[in-house]
Amino acid sequence: MKLEISGKSILIVEDSTTTRALIKAIIEEIGDVNIIEAGSGFEALKLLPTQNFNLVITDINMPDINGLELISFIKNNPRYSHIPLIIISTERSEEDKKRGIALGAMAYITKPFKAQELQEIIQQAFAHESI
Questions:
Q1: How many CB atoms within 10 Å of residue 108?
Q2: Number of independent structural domains in the chain
Q3: Contact yes or no for 55/49 (Cβ under 8 A)
Q4: Using CA atoms, how far apart are residues 50 and 105, in angstroms rounded to an integer?
Q5: What is the pTM of this model?
Q6: Which of 37, 70, 101, 128 could form a disulfide with 41 if both were Cys (CB 3.0 to 4.6 A apart)?
Q7: Residue 96 and residue 100: Cα distance in Å, rounded?
Q8: pLDDT tens digits, residue range 58-96?
């Protein structure tokens, strides 16, 4: 299934190069998008002003700035607060999930995850964006 997502920019924030490559491959199956990768929350903060991102996918456990701090920054900054956020993490506690959603993430996916699950959530993010 190809989505109408051509020209969209997605920022993947994940310290594991293997997981970043997996997420990128899953996204590339559903459409032709511009994918930018960051290996840490700090790197993501440096990349945010460089493009108009349509979606941010972030891990929680990362060096320097963690994913929850990154989400808080994005959602509290008027320049970026409109960007949908998806968390992909090994953290399975309900507390972490609730906190991520409360901070502004639209979805919380636990690792390991199915490609179709991520693709469906990305589709929801872009469907919501076009409303």
A1: 20
A2: 1
A3: no
A4: 22
A5: 0.93
A6: 70
A7: 6
A8: 999 998 999 999 999 999 999 999 999 999 999 888 998
